[in-house]
Write a structure and sequence with these properties.
globular; 9 helices; two-stranded parallel sheet; 2 domains; mainly alpha; Rossmann fold; about 260 residues; Peptidase_S28; 2 strands
Length: about 260
């Protein structure tokens, strides 16, 4: 595993573990991607997998139950990391234009064959239709990008591929926000990191909700930029942001150690 989180680990002699989300990569079940199988694909079950992995890896590596765990993630995985603190807090811490065919896209998304070399388009579409939405549009007349991926066209995919209406998607998103708390989750020991040029930052927590739910907004920062390996070309705001992340981790680990010492007295 590469990236800034892994680069931080040696400072505390930490073990870095990367978990693969169910139904993605090599973790596609034997039944493939049929609807009967996709009902077992959800963020809630992914969090249950985190608990199972925590217990199994603790036994495998003989990790003390008092050792702190810190969850990292970017984008959807970042949401899972924050939700883990909320729901399972006791267990964790200029080229040529490409040819694009809507019909071909729908046909590919309808395919239930496991795509072990793919990026999980069918699986991710299913989760956006049944949990998140997360659709990015560019409908403002001043938008410099294509206005074709409007919200109705993206919701149409849910109908065409899975038979799910726009109303059912809206209801699913509302249910997810109710379950996790939306932009006021009420978790603790969570740092929400965003870049102000990331279109998804408006869906994240950008205003601190208290001392245990702090935020960090990186100027000119793009999607998951803070997770990338350090480079000489990194902006001052990114470098400062990473320093703040390091200091926050140091504070949490110090508190965990102090709590452990008090428990032993």
């Amino acid at each position: 595993m590469r990236g800034h989180p892994a680069a931080l680990a040696p400072a505390w002699g930490a073990l870095v573990i990367s978990l693969e989300h169910r139904f993605y990569g090599l973790s596609i079940p034997a039944g493939g991607l049929e609807m009967a199988q996709l009902r077992f694909l959800s963020s809630r079950l992914a969090l249950a997998d985190v608990v199972s992995a925590h217990l199994a890896l603790s036994r495998l590596f003989n990790i003390s139950s008092s050792s702190p765990w810190i969850c990292f993630g970017g984008s959807y995985a970042g949401s899972l990391a924050a939700w883990a603190r909320l729901k399972i807090v006791l267990h964790s811490l200029g080229q040529k234009c490409l040819s694009f065919s809507r019909a071909e896209t729908v046909a590919q998304l309808r395919s239930t064959e496991p795509q072990l070399s793919g990026v999980g388009d069918r699986q991710w579409l299913y989760q956006t239709c049944t949990e998140f939405g997360f659709y990015v549009t560019c409908e403002n007349p001043r938008c410099p990008f294509s206005q074709l991926p409007a919200l109705p066209s993206q919701l149409d995919l849910c109908e065409q591929v899975f038979g799910l209406s726009a109303l059912s998607v809206a209801q699913a998103v509302a249910q997810t926000n109710s379950y996790y708390g939306g932009q006021t989750p009420g978790a603790n020991k969570v740092l929400f990191v965003n870049g102000d040029t990331d279109p998804w930052h408006v869906l994240s927590v950008t205003q601190a909700l208290g001392s245990s739910e702090s935020t960090l907004l990186i100027r000119t920062g793009s999607h998951c930029l803070d997770m990338a390996p350090e480079r000489p070309s990194d902006s001052p705001s990114l470098r400062l942001g990473r320093q703040n992340i390091f200091q926050q981790l140091q504070t949490w680990l110090k508190l965990a150690k102090e709590s452990q010492i008090k428990g032993e007295v």
